[in-house]
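User: structure tokens for PHOP2 phosphatase, please.
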Amino acid sequence: MKFLLVFDFDHTIIDENSDTWIVKCAPEQKLPNGLRNSYQPGHWTEYMGRVFVYLRENGVKEDEMKRTMTTIPFTAGMVDLLGFIGDNKELFDCIIVSDSNAVFIDWILKAADFHKVFDEVFTNPAAFSSTGYLTVQNFHSHHCAKCPENLCKRKVLKEFIDKQLEQGVCYARIVYIGDGGNDLCPVTFLKKDDIAMPRQGYTLEKKLSQLAQDLDPVECSVLFWSSATDIMSYLKLLTQE
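Assistant: Done. Predicted tokens:
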């Protein structure tokens, strides 16, 4: 019986938002007001598509974007945590479910040699066109009113668990590690033996605290973390059970 670790990416594995970090490539490291103000709630992927068009039209090429993205710092303790998970793959399956995109995550994980730690990465598909534009697509379509239209992390998690069950893989426990508002939906999918680990001071922690105050707590246990060392301490306890 293995444990399944589910990670968000932005502000969880890395200590920044990868989509806003790319603005460092823009002229004067900022976007024009018209572009910045064009974002509509729930339509982040389309907004980022416009950002990538702007970058390309201002002469920003793939190699410059890659250099910039691989300077993003990992969250405190995360390098040690991912090393620990990599050394104990017989105990842990590990996936990423993220609203970033496949190109950014691939660059960052490969530059730090962490791509082998993760069994699968579920994120918005991305690729460079023949003319050098980075294009990003919605991950899937879904009917969840709580999630942005391009990604419902609960649907991703449920489909992954179902696929694993079909192959005879049943997890002793799921540990969900995240920070954002869009991590709440998958956390409500977790059962009583599972663990949600929200990052302290971020939206997921606030939303879970509000649910507890409203006497509508989630079914799983909740453990807060401020550095990935906290997560590693918990995983070490798990492996000793």
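User: Anything notable?

Assistant: Residues 3-15+74-124+144-239 form a domain with the Rossmann fold fold (CATH 3.40.50.1000).
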